[in-house]
């Protein structure tokens, strides 16, 4: 740390201010140092350890949040899939995927639930493919064509034909 | 005061080591900054409070050591904590720049008693500054004149822009300049020689 006297020939305050402060500068105190050294580890945990603890806690919470978020998304998408499958009434869909069956032992119920989860997952993938992905690409295709028309519109006819012939949507 | 026998590591190196659990490094920082911080904390507050504030400052610095970044100057970071700790500790209202008060302070008719009291305390200018200036102005002048801190670092301590700090210091100097003319009593008229070596922190 720099404790050099500030050198400023154009500031008449520099030297008197520094000189006054220097006259009242305290001396180093071992007693005070011992007090400070004793106070720091007693009251607070060591900084780096506290840092490590908070990191573990943070990562633990992060994984819990990730699992909860993934489960919520899966539920939402599954619900959306059941309600928005075209040509089928949600009730019929439910009946078809969950037929009323006679009471079974608990093990069979678990198998039925597993079957339902698998069918929902596969249906989810198909829904994503047909609805979300295709619509995105459809939007991109539309944007590309619009951009093409904007660029080629003012151009001379022969040049715009050459450019338009290049399929930019591939 | 004990010093490290070999090449002394920088404050930033010591802080980085302390972040990884090296207590002797933090202890060395306690040694290095005890005097400058204590001096800084006494600039405007009661002396009997300064040691308590100093302890609180180091406690906060240690508990927040994981937030320190080695690319910052450690002194700037520590003085920032010290200033905020002092403000919170005292919670005194910030005096507005009072021209009437300044005129009373610098008036030749103020009387010799007040001057003798301040001269006895050897802090005439700084005592006057504490009465006249706002806390920010006082802190800026202290960090500049006593700690030789660059304007950019003073701005970081005060959480202000460099331009604002320069303006602040210009106005503060303007308020104190009349005091310099009244400062020279008998026996103090000769300008003292510059110290041969800088005092240590």
Q: Work out the oligomeric state of the chains in this entry.
A: heterodimer
So, CATH architecture of the largest domain in chain B?
Orthogonal Bundle
**CATH homologous superfamily assignment of the largest domain in chain B:** Winged helix-like DNA-binding domain superfamily/Winged helix DNA-binding domain
Count every helix of chain A, treating DSSP H or I runs of 4 or more residues as helices. 6
**Per the principal axes of the C-alpha atoms, what is the gross shape of chain A?**
elongated
Major sheet characteristics of chain B: none
Uncertain segments of chain B: 103-113, 115-119, 186-201
The succession of helices and strands of chain A, N to C, reads: HHHHHH
CA gyration radius of chain B, whole angstroms? 19 Å
Instruction: Give the termini distance of chain B in whole angstroms.
Output: 10 Å
Written description of the protein model:
The complex is a heterodimer of chains A (170) and B (201). Chain A contains six helices and no strands. By secondary structure, chain A is mainly alpha-helical. Among the domains of chain A are: 16-43, no CATH class; 104-170. The two termini of chain A are 63 Å apart. Chain B has helices at residues 11-19, 23-41, 47-63, 74-90, 99-106, 112-121, 124-132, 135-145, 151-158, 162-181. Chain B is globular, with a radius of gyration of 19 Å. Mean pLDDT of chain B is 79; it is low at 103-113, 115-119 and 186-201. The chains are: A mainly alpha (170), B mainly alpha (201). At the A-B interface, α1, α2 and α3 of A face α1, α2, α3, α7 and α8 of B.
Summarize the structure.
The complex is a heterodimer of chains A (170) and B (201). Helices cover 74% and strands 0% of the residues of chain A.
List keywords for this structure.
heterodimer, A: 170 residues, mainly alpha, 6 helices, elongated, B: 201 residues, Rna Polymerase Sigma Factor, Chain: A, Arc Repressor Mutant, subunit A, 64% helix, disordered C terminus
């Amino acid at each position: 740390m720099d404790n050099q006297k500030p050198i400023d020939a154009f500031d008449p305050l520099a030297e008197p201010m520094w000189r006054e402060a220097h006259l009242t500068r305290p001396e180093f105190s071992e007693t005070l140092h011992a007090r400070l050294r004793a106070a720091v580890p007693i009251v607070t945990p060591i900084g780096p350890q506290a840092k490590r603890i908070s990191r573990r806690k943070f990562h633990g919470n992060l994984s819990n949040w990730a699992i909860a978020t993934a489960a919520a998304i899966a539920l939402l998408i599954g619900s959306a899939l059941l309600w928005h499958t075209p040509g089928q009434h949600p009730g019929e869909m439910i009946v078809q995927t969950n037929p009323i069956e006679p009471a079974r032992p608990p093990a069979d119920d678990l198998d039925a639930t597993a079957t339902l989860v698998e069918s929902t997952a596969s249906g989810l993938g198909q829904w994503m493919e047909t609805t979300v992905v295709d619509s995105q690409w459809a939007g991109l295709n539309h944007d590309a064509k619009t951009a093409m028309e904007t660029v080629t519109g003012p151009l001379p006819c022969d040049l715009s034909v050459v450019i338009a012939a290049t399929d930019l949507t591939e | 005061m004990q010093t490290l026998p070999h090449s002394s590591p920088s404050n930033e190196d010591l802080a980085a080591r302390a972040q990884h659990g090296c207590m002797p490094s933090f202890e060395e920082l306690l040694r290095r900054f005890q005097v400058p911080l204590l001096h800084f904390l006494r600039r405007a507050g009661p002396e009997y409070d300064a040691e308590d504030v100093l302890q609180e400052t180091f406690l906060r610095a240690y508990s927040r050591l994981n937030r320190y970044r080695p690319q910052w100057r450690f002194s700037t970071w520590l003085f920032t904590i010290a200033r905020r700790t002092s403000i919170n500790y005292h919670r005194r209202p910030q005096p507005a720049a009072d021209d009437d008060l300044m005129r009373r302070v610098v008036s030749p008719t103020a009387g010799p008693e007040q001057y003798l009291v301040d001269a006895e305390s050897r802090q005439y200018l700084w005592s006057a500054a504490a009465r006249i200036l706002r806390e920010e102005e006082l802190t800026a002048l202290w960090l500049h004149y006593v700690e030789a801190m660059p304007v950019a670092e003073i701005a970081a301590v005060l959480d202000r822009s460099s331009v604002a700090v320069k303006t602040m210091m210009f106005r503060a100097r303007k308020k104190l300049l009349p005091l310099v003319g009244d400062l020279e009593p008998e026996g103090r008229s000769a300008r003292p020689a510059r110290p041969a070596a800088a005092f240590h922190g």
